[in-house]
Request: fold
Amino acid sequence: MATFYAMTVPEFLGELGLPQHDVFDLEWSLSSGEGAFIAARTGLSGVALQAMTYREIVPEARLMIARKNRHRCSKCPADIHRKAAALPWMSQCSIHGTDLHEVGGATLPDILGPARFDALQVHAKAGAAVLDSWARGAGQGDLGPVEILVFLTTRHRRASPPNVSEQPRMSLGARRGYHAFLTTPIIRQALAVIVPEYDQVAPVLTKPVRPGLYALAEGSLLQTFALTIGIGRIAEHPVARAIEVLLASDADGQERLRDVLKAWPLSLRRRISARLWRAERDERDRQIAEKATRRRQSHNPRRVQSHKYRYRIS
Reply:
């Protein structure tokens, strides 16, 4: 509104009769008296003014709300900051329905590929519904998004340099020049197990995300989209997803994850423990069977002995 009247925000607040006020404080808690000052000068109703605020967002979720648009819509004017665009789980414009752009101009379909992006939309919508419901103070049932976010951002394995699939193709000379990059330890989080699509496309040095709610508050467009997918997948199948991460973890990672799982409901923890014990037993039996099979194969005589060469061939 200040831009519409060709004024700065402090000047506009002074004209409204609210000098020395912070506009962001007004967004969180606009009193009836302050709303009356604004309504008298702008002609807007009190209901319309309250709809511009974040009064319905619970204090625990306010950390995730950005002060401006997180990402850009190609069809929206640059000086318009829409309320929904400040939410971390939004990947499309609420007005035009177009994909939001990162700072570099890329969209999620550009990064993930159109087919993969469409396939992930189901889980992303489920995670966004969980986050939106929690942020507005609705009931969360057995498991809330805060506990899921802590689980997703927990290190499940020891930090390690980029593996072969994460390294770009380069010559031996280039590898010598990029030795520091190829030996940089990368933090391995449970997010990469729950959302392997993110692990496949994210730049290797920026794969780790901030812990807990800070991951959504300060993450990139790709990171917040992956976290939203992870929340949706765990909310749908919490036991199976937790076991999936525990089986892929090392000893130290399992210890960290078990500490995180203490915040989950007791009923879920009991189901996870029971199914994890069976899964580990089945995995041990499978490995023993594979060793026995390899041992039997090593004793089978070969039809063509390695020391029998063709004539004149050494």
